[in-house]
Specification:
107 residues; mainly alpha; three-stranded antiparallel sheet; 5 helices; 3 strands; 48% helix; 6% strand
Length: 107
């Protein structure tokens, strides 16, 4: 991408702490990639509050490609990244109330 971003490109706002103090703390490239993808997905939604299910991340081709994984390995990498981001306070992980056995949403 030598010429920069193309004209008319859409932008996704990223919270300032993620580009400052949290960027210093995050030591896993997988965690950073998953967090950025979640922020992108949440921004594209028009509902409030917005959320994304783990299954959406598992089936996202971009997520699979950027993490270089598929199947059970992809799920394990995504789950570890989400857990780390949750422990850091970057993402809120919850279990959907209508399905207590679900794998949760990120928001």
């Amino acid at each position: 991408m030598s010429g920069g971003f193309p004209r008319g490109v859409q932008f996704t706002p990223v919270p300032d702490p993620l580009l400052a103090s949290l960027l210093e703390e995050i030591d896993s490239l997988d965690e950073l990639k998953v967090v950025l993808r979640v922020i992108h997905a949440l921004h594209r939604q028009r509902k409030v509050p917005s959320s994304i299910a783990r299954d959406e991340l598992y089936s996202d081709r971009t997520v699979a490609s950027m993490l270089g994984a598929s199947g059970d390995k992809l799920e394990a990498v995504v789950d570890a990244a989400l857990e780390a981001a949750s422990e850091r306070g970057v993402l809120l992980i919850r279990v959907a109330p209508d399905n207590p056995g679900s794998s949760g949403d990120s928001s």
